[in-house]
């Protein structure tokens, strides 16, 4: 018998790297309810923790009351706060011999051949991650160029540290990282990287992982078309065909910097209850995450969820903050609307379209494939030709890179009648009535 749904759920438990629809979810939470989560850092911490099976350590999924397969869940991001006072990151290189097929999913100790070994920390630096079985160095990735970065108390600015200060932080790694108690990851600051010194960076935190549970067990960082492509034909137990990957994934691994406080993400429901999960908070990131990784942090996120009945999606739709929209996709202000009406009158145009911004997320093995995926998702939902969507994205929007090699947003002004027919008009109107002249 299912428990009674609650209005607010506090989340601080995590998956072992696998999003598995067959495992218990938290909740249920009411439609319109709130999720407050203490998230773990993503990427590098899990990457140097071989027992984690997915490259991240996201929150245990939450069951949303009333969410059925074929519905969607609109997730409003109310707040994203960084807890870490320091982190470390950089570009990576897998260590040959320490993984089967995929170092994010199937790391192993090359000394005793233990698959996904439990590890312990001895000292600091790249030699500190040790196999608990045999004591050998078991780190699956090397930092080819890295940095340790600290943040000010207002969470506005970060600066990168010298070798001496990075090593000082490495000796108190979990404290500086603000790692949740239930997290099993090795803190990345243990490695004490220091190739960048005195670099100043602006903070604007966002969620690199946010979405709903896929309909087959998937490594969390591979719940997207680019990272997920490495599952196709893989010999480990999470190997899939390309058709299976496309059917089951929900593209929750986004790394889109606009998935921040104030934005709304509309996600597909592919399992009963949806299974909302989050994690991989980033302190800052430019479009593309071109180094492959950024400043991953622990944090507190506050979400509100709403079920959208009979809104069938293949992947997420982002409603960014109005300030985050491309210039061409912003709502028209009063003066622009008046100018358009005057021009329509001059040219005998009987009526102008009412339109609102939407950003369709697409993923694929390459940026070109991801772009095609985003455009096709829009065309299917709006029952319009892909060529029409391409024109709209060209003159009233933009294609923006979330993550290289294969996450994009196709952003454009969509006609009100399209949004209404698709069942998302009220959600879109609420987002932009609050933030603009729309």
TrEMBL record:
InterPro entries: FmdA_AmdA. GO terms for molecular function: hydrolase activity, acting on carbon-nitrogen (but not peptide) bonds, in linear amides. Gene3D superfamilies: Acetamidase/Formamidase-like domains. This is Acetamidase. It comes from Ignatzschineria cameli.
């Amino acid at each position: 018998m299912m428990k009674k749904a609650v209005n607010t759920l506090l989340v601080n438990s995590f998956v072992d790297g696998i999003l598995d629809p067959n495992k218990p979810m938290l909740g249920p939470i009411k439609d319109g309810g709130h999720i407050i989560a203490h998230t773990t850092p993503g990427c590098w911490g899990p990457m140097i923790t071989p027992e984690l099976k997915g490259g991240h350590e996201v929150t245990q999924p939450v069951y949303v009351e009333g969410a059925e397969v074929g519905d969607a869940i609109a997730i409003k991001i109310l707040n994203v706060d960084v807890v870490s006072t320091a982190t470390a990151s950089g570009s990576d290189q897998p260590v040959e011999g320490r993984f089967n097929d995929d170092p994010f999913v199937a790391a192993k100790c090359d000394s005793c051949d233990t698959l996904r070994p439990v590890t312990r920390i001895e000292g600091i630096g790249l030699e500190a991650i040790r196999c608990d079985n045999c004591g050998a160095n078991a780190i699956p990735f090397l930092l080819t160029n890295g940095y340790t970065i600290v943040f000010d108390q207002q969470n506005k600015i970060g600066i990168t540290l010298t070798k001496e200060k990075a090593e000082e932080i490495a000796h108190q790694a979990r404290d500086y990282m603000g790692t949740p108690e239930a997290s099993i990851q090795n803190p990345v600051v243990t490695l004490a990287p220091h190739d960048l010194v005195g670099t100043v960076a602006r903070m604007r935190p966002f969620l690199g992982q946010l979405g709903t549970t896929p309909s087959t067990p998937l490594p969390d960082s591979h719940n997207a078309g680019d990272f997920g492509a490495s599952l196709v034909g893989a010999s480990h137990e999470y190997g899939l065909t390309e058709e299976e990957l496309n059917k089951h994934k929900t593209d929750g691994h986004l790394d889109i910097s606009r998935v921040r406080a104030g934005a709304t993400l509309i996600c597909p429901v592919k399992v009963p209850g949806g299974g909302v999960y989050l994690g991989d908070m980033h302190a800052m990131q430019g479009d593309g995450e071109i180094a492959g990784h950024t400043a991953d942090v622990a944090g507190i996120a506050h979400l509100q969820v709403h079920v959208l009945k009979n809104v069938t999606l293949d992947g997420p739709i982002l409603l960014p903050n109005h300030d985050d929209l491309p210039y061409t996709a912003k709502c028209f202000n009063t003066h622009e609307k008046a100018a358009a009406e005057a021009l329509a009158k001059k040219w005998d145009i009987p009526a102008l379209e009412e339109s609102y911004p939407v950003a369709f997320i697409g993923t694929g093995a390459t940026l070109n494939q991801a772009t095609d995926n985003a455009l096709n998702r829009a065309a299917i939902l709006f029952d319009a030709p892909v060529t029409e969507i391409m024109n709209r994205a060209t003159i009233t929007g933009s294609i923006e890179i979330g993550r290289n090699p294969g996450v994009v947003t196709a952003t454009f002004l969509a006609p009100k009648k399209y949004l209404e027919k698709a069942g998302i008009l009220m959600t879109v109107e609420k987002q932009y009535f609050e933030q603009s002249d729309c």
